[in-house]
Design a protein that fits this description.
Order of helices and strands of chain B: HHHEE
CATH class of the largest domain in chain A: Alpha Beta
Shape of chain B: flat
Strand content of chain B: under 5%
Largest sheet of chain B: 2 strands, antiparallel
CATH superfamily of the largest domain in chain A: Amidase signature (AS) domain
Distance between the termini of chain A: 20 Å
Number of helices of chain A: 16
Radius of gyration of chain A: 21 Å
Oligomer: heterodimer
Order of helices and strands of chain A: HHEHEHEHEHEEHHEHEHHHHEHHEEH
Number of domains of chain A: 2
Radius of gyration of chain B: 22 Å
Strand order of the largest sheet of chain A: 1-3-2-4-6-5-10-11-9-7-8
Shape of chain A: globular
Number of strands of chain A: 11
Distance between the termini of chain B: 42 Å
């Protein structure tokens, strides 16, 4: 078997049985990056020397019988996680030369568990986007191709587009992402991967460049549900440095994958039957429900009446928080500085030069909805609607154990599509945003291919802090779907 | 509510982002498009609803008011775009 085709679980066993070495596993991925990254642009920074050192250390640990959960597993890290001594850009010109003097809690936990970091993955600027087209370091290509020899370059989704593209093309075995309104789940669906946004607070936000603090949540990407469970087990956990971190023990997510769904009640939110949803996505959704019923679950219709207001609420709350969080980029203490005659000019020139168009748009919207005279009409009202959205979920979870929906309203679209109308781009997140607003865990699982041969995902949404049920349901979907599709562009395949 | 050019300039000023005069009409159109779309929230009945500020029902923790970190001047200054000794520099603000 090619080294880049291993799952994390498979590589973990092969490493412990000394069938493969961490050094050769890392090298295979670095070679794949050298081959394909010039085209995919999934990594902004490749840390090959550091990766080789970490792999050598992993081999020593294994030889000494001191392997930890991720010893020798090569990963991509979204370039929103601060990594000590390694440039962290957030996909923005304004942080182009920023080298953090500290390590984020999530990446520190992964390193502690023995992971090897291949490099920093591309993303939409400050994680604001659904296509990876807003990165200051250029767009990322989705390794999947439409069938019939189409040359269209597809987007990997966003904002964690580089993470998704890298894992899909076998440049990394797994990756970290962050999800504010769908930034793990939508790219996972577009690239044929599993990806979970855990409950808000499950993974520490400390050392993650902030976008919208009440929504941002780190989570993993991998090619299987079980691999996501392994990664989340390392990433999650209480952190006193994040005031919204949950002080709860981390369950055995991997064991939860094997629970099955017998006796569970799965809700179908009727409001997700959006007008204009492609028939094949509708069919796949029904298929997913049938699989769960066949595995012993009971399917129940539920109502989440405020679903249609999720996106509009999000596009008030997230820009408002972003306008506040991004105030720190002023050209004084770190990041880009542009010249100005006085301090105000320095601020204004730095921010005009350093931020891209989408980031500026969101800062301006956020500044407006928080400004005197408009705060009550926009921001306060949005926070009240957010409370109603949470209540919808709380009510639904009084009768069901999890919800099943499509992840996105379409398969991956081409670069250049949906670019002229910000609102059309925002609509990509219509199915993912409500779970973000409510802070509940949600996972995208690859469930099939559309008529053009592109992957489609189903989303499993669970109760707060109940990722275990989300993993159990997702595993049944993965097993039933038997998804075996691979992208056209991947390690070992001549381009 | 629809933004006029003066309001766009005022917001940009508040956000400390320099905007060229030639870009005002485009920004005005884009922002009004977004604001027009989020206007739909005005139809929701929110009477008596307590605003939700954070994620799922979280009460912020308190901790002891003690120093847990410090003496990191070099690390803090390491990314400064410009510095003199142990100080960040800015253009002269006092004549």
């Amino acid at each position: 078997m090619m080294l880049t085709e291993f799952t994390i679980a498979g590589a973990r066993a092969a490493l412990r049985d000394k069938e493969i070495s961490a050094a050769e596993l890392t090298l295979a991925h670095l070679e794949a990056i050298a081959d394909l990254n010039p085209r995919l642009n999934a990594f902004i920074t490749v840390t090959d020397e550091q990766a080789a050192l970490q792999a050598a250390r992993a081999d020593k640990a294994i030889a000494a019988g001191q392997a930890r959960p991720l010893t020798g597993i090569p990963l991509a890290i979204k370039d929103l996680f601060c990594t000590q001594g390694v440039r962290t850009t957030a996909g923005s010109r304004i942080l182009e030369n920023f080298v953090p003097p500290y390590e984020s809690t999530v990446t520190a936990r992964l390193l502690h568990d023995g992971a090897v970091f291949l490099g920093k993955a591309n993303l939409d600027e400050f994680a604001m986007g659904s296509s990876n087209m807003t990165s200051a370091f250029g767009p990322v290509e989705n390794p999947w191709k439409r069938s019939g020899g189409s040359n269209a370059v597809l987007v990997p989704g966003g904002s964690s587009g580089g993470s998704a593209s890298a894992v899909s093309a076998r440049l990394a075995m797994g990756a970290t992402g962050t999800d504010t309104g769908g930034s793990i789940r939508q790219p996972a669906a577009f690239c044929g991967l599993a990806g979970i946004k855990p409950t808000y607070g499950r993974c520490s936000r400390w050392g993650v460049v902030a976008f919208a603090s009440s929504l941002d949540q780190p989570g993993p990407f991998a090619r299987t549900v079980q691999d996501c469970a392994i990664l989340l087990g390392s990433m999650a956990g209480f952190d006193p440095k994040d005031s919204t971190s949950i002080d709860l023990a981390v369950p055995d997510f991997e064991a939860a994958c094997r629970r099955g769904v017998r006796g569970l009640k799965i809700g179908v939110p009727r409001e997700y039957r959006a007008d204009g949803m492609p028939a094949e996505i509708e069919r796949l959704w029904q298929q997913g429900l049938d699989w769960l019923r066949d595995a012993g679950a009971e399917i129940v219709d539920v109502s989440l009446p405020h679903t249609k207001y999720g996106l509009a609420t999000y596009y008030i709350v997230a820009p408002a928080e972003a306008s506040s969080n991004l105030a720190r980029y002023d050209g004084v203490r770190f990041g880009l500085r542009a010249d100005g005659q006085d301090l105000t000019e320095l601020y204004e020139a730095t921010r005009a030069e350093g931020f891209g168009e989408e980031v500026k748009r969101r800062i301006l919207i956020g500044t407006y909805v928080l400004s005197a005279g408009y705060y009550d009409a926009y921001y306060l009202r949005a926070q009240k609607v957010r409370a109603l959205i949470l209540k919808d979920f709380t009510d639904a979870f009084a009768t069901v154990d999890a919800l099943l929906t499509p992840t996105a309203p379409s398969a991956a679209f081409a670069q250049g599509e949906k670019m002229n109308d910000p609102v059309a781009m925002y609509l990509n997140d219509v199915f993912t945003v409500p779970a973000s607003m409510a802070g509940v865990p949600a996972m995208s699982v690859p469930a099939g291919l559309d008529s053009q041969g592109l992957p489609l995902g189903l989303q499993v949404i669970g109760r707060p802090y109940d990722e275990e049920t989300v993993f159990a349901v997702s595993q049944v979907i993965e097993d039933s779907a038997g998804f075996s599709g691979k992208p056209a562009l991947r390690a070992g395949v001549p381009a | 509510m629809s933004l006029d050019p003066a309001t766009v300039r005022r917001i940009a000023k508040l956000a400390r982002i320099r905007v060229q005069e030639a870009d005002i009409p485009r920004l005005q159109g884009e922002l009004n498009n977004i604001l027009g779309w989020i206007e739909q929230l005005s139809e929701v009945d929110v009477a008596g609803v307590q605003p939700l500020t954070g994620g799922a029902q979280i009460a912020l923790r308190l901790r002891e008011d003690v120093v847990t970190d410090g003496n990191q001047a070099e690390a803090i200054l390491a990314n400064a775009p410009d510095r003199v000794g142990a100080f960040f520099t800015v253009p002269k603000v006092v004549e």
